[in-house]
Amino acid sequence: MAEHIWSILCSVGIIDQETNNVSLIGAIEQIQFDFSQTEDSPIRIPMQWTLVSLWRRDHLAEPEQFTGRLRVVGPDGQDLAGAQFEIDLSAHERTRTVTRQSMFVVTEPGTHRFVIETQQEDDSWDFITAVPLEVIDTA
After folding, report:
1. Which long-range contacts (CB under 8 A, 24 or more apart) does 39-44 make?
2. 3-137 in CATH: which number?
3. What is the value of pTM for the model shown?
């Protein structure tokens, strides 16, 4: 299975077409929200976010391709959002996956986790990493 190098939660990830380098703009470590403003649950906060991950072949001479998924998990362990994506290392030794959203779903203040997993041959999912995001109540 490929090696996960890093994942960064940011506002915008821009990949330079000439150099193929990525610029990560506005790293997101925490957000603040006044929970007293609404009684809705879950709360949908309009917020542009991008999760960029870098992957590398485990064995450089062996192309590989597999499925990954992102789960946004609330402080109570509930899945709030998710997405699946393909990790294609057949043509290149490294690749990036980019997940973009314009909405962030929360149910309560606390640490939310962007959990990255990869699908195994038996269709089970292996935990790779979790990127934390602290949601602070400003009420």
Report:
1. 41/107, 42/80, 42/105, 42/106, 42/107, 43/105, 43/106, 43/107, 44/103, 44/104, 44/105
2. 2.60.40.2550
3. 0.91
